[in-house]
Records
---
Amino acid sequence: MHDETGLEAEVRELSDVVEALLADQGGCEWNRSQTHESLVTYLVEECAELVEAIEDGTVDDRREELGDVLYQVVLHAAIAARASDGAFDLADVVRDVRLKTVRRHPHVFGGEAAADVEDIVRLWSAAKAVEKASRSSAYDGVPRGLPALSRAQKLEGRRVAAGAPRAIGRAAGADADAEIVWGRDLLEVVDRAGRDGIDAERALRRAVREREALLRAVEPRRDGA
């Protein structure tokens, strides 16, 4: 564990390492050629590896993968700072998330009181609603880049919170090809998982890992034994 000074020093040193990689003189050509867009693939991979470490790894695995995700954040911030408009830097990113976290926990940093977790969620949702008041739809802000199962459950959760009716049937003019029919059937299963309080994405990951373990258990050995 590090004290506050040690933490600040470690973050600064990591930031300095990234700056050195991006430097015009003596830096890394590969890093200098990267953009926010070109790094998306790596960010997705690092986040997936972190999820795997959390669900199926050791403490050391989690520590390593958290570091890899942090590196991506620092790199993106450094790229933004080097842009011609100097959009933002790492300090801006840290400041914004700190202030947002404080705003969304008024029972800790403000004058609100929370009797239980339900109260905490209510206060958090109310604070977020104020921040997102400009949104025109209850479904705004659900990232299109989420895995389909996660996005489906997120949209369904928004629908339930808004008290909106279920979307029954298909979109007007949609062709009833085999693929979309399969998709609709899967959505019904995902909705059922939500009603049962199950994270569909995590449930499928667990089932896939179980299947992989079973497949590996019966796989012929390749060492000739």
---
Amino acid sequence: MKYPGDEPILRFGRIKKEMEKRGFDALVIYSCQWKVEFLHYVANFRVLGKDACVVLPLNGDPIMYLSQAWDEQRAHEDSWIKNIVVAREGMLKLAGEQAAKCGGNIGLVGAELLPQHHRAALDDVLNGRKPDNAFDLLDGVAKVKTDWEIEILRECASFADIGFIAEVNCLYGGISECEVVAELDFAMKSAGADDNFQMIGMGTQLPSMNLPTDKTLKAGDLVLTEITPMKGCLTYATQLCKTVKFGAATKIEKEKYQLLCDALEYTLSQTKAGVPARKLSNWQNEIIGNAGYAKYCVPPYMRSRGHNFGLGLVEITDTTELILEENMVFVVHPNQMIPEIGYLACGETVRVTKDGVERLSKIPMSLIEVLPRL
């Protein structure tokens, strides 16, 4: 992704400030094909080969090591790291040797991803000095987004809006969940999204949303969607949770969906920097619970009242020990099981500000009705 010139300076400055607090002389940051977020955050590079890593000294410039040569040209084009080494064999040995030159206190991000031979090689060159797991350091830094990251997330939210409009416009009797998702994906990727993690449900008395199937739409069905477009990697994803009625909504459907909208609106009206994250969950559960649904505000019916994606994870639950900071970005979703009508989807992505929130979606939260075509 194209980036402003000061982004790597800002990002490495934040990471090194935390390294200094923890006494780390260097970090080794590892990613593989199926978990690219760590490397993407420190190198602005999505590894497509088998794996790669970065050595970030407290004092000095980072070095990126690639295990496959065919990632090299793209790394030079995309990454803000200039020193790139292809190491077909012994990648973690080379990285460990470089980290050891910086001092004896080494932090490791991605330890859980390391194959045994990589971990053995790293331990060997560090002469038995076990590196400390530094995931929480990088994750903590990534919780607060830079101005550039916020622009990316605003763009992702615009993709979700585009996807939802495409969903509403494509609905007709007999269309399948897979076909709806295909329309969503096409619209968002045409606009610039790199990927989309899509949950959907069509029918009545739905227990939840799931991955799309060949189930088809009938008059009177509800269509539930969690639209989650991303740019670059999962860390840069937003989510829009919406419910559509295929036909005229009943009085009880309107009332119960308005309950969720009320919970969302009140919660967002109280959210700002300095607020404990657990309060967002408390407020949603209190409003929905006081309406008679307290039993359905806890597992197995409900897990969390919001979250974000990838590195820098923020979870909105009743027990989250986190104080919100300006420029944290996450979805708030009072998605809810209502036994009279089934599961409902309601939620959007927000940015925390000093005095409130910025709502990234431009589509008002309401129950949308789509009348079957004659």
---
Amino acid sequence: MNDTSLLEERKQRVMKTIRLEKTDRTPVVLEYAGFGAGAIGAPLGDFVKDPATATDMMIQAWEKVGGADAMEYPTYSPDMLSQAWLSRVYIPGRELSYDQPWQVQEQELLTPEDYGRIVDMGWTPFLMSFLQEKLGIDMMQLLGSYVQAVPPALERWQAKEVPVLVVGIITTPYEMFCGGRTLAQFVLDLYRRPDQVQAAMDAVLPEIAPTIIAVNKQFGLPAMWIGGWRSASEMLSRPLWERFVWPYLEKLACEVLDSGTIVIFHLDSDWTRDLDMFKTFPAGRCVLSLDSSTDIFKAKEVLGDTMCIMGDVSPVLLSHGTPDEVHAYCRRLIDGLGPTGFILHSGCDIPIDARVENVQAMIAAATGK
């Protein structure tokens, strides 16, 4: 790697690890949004003003902790969460006090009758109408402003010699419906009107990935992020999971892989029961990113010969542990899951209130610096 730039050195280390090839050391990939403000002592109301400000703070946080190998995404806008949750997002300085973390306000906005409307209208027209009528959001304007913010953000990260892995973030129909109906009502729907739910899911599926795949490829980024949280194994019986979760997760992943893009499965909550299902994907093309709920050592045992494992330093440890505790846990991960096919990473995002010295300890565990 001595003949390459620092940018290429970092990128090669991460990409070789994803391909299950040997590298000089375990790479460290960072994922955070609000920590960009927390690390530099800025209020969250400033962070959410616009994506350019978010990028600036995220880069300042990167420089403060130092030494990692890649960043997952280049900028952030919490309003984008409305599309994944079909819910209103309260923003600091708007609905919340200026330094209060943004919050998804889950309400029963999606109705049982909407399943039929989705089938009749098609997903994109329904979604545009739903966001406008229920949340006052112009979807095209929201997406457009975010996409416009991406090129300058990527340029800024590249100037710092930091590879960025994803822009495209998608999730399954299950997650979107669950957010729009509320967890309690949606689970009841799986029993009361399963055929209606499935018909709506089938109508949504073809429209989820193509646009995001195209955007991701437009910016030349290597991976896409497919998220799951309430669709985790611990939330549902196996028969329900196999009907309403897995077919859609699998098809989305195959669609992304067929485009020549790496899949990062961002899986919150406990997926241990169903790890074996992920063996169907081609070796060296996917990353399993875990949040410290799934047994990461079991994941390595089941999937280590086909899939890179990424994780799983918990938010609690990063926010409330000591640097020595963080370092010791990270070394346990590196020694137990390496030397190939493992990327050191936080469990989900690095939290807003993570201690800078703890993030530095995480990085040092891999880099020795």
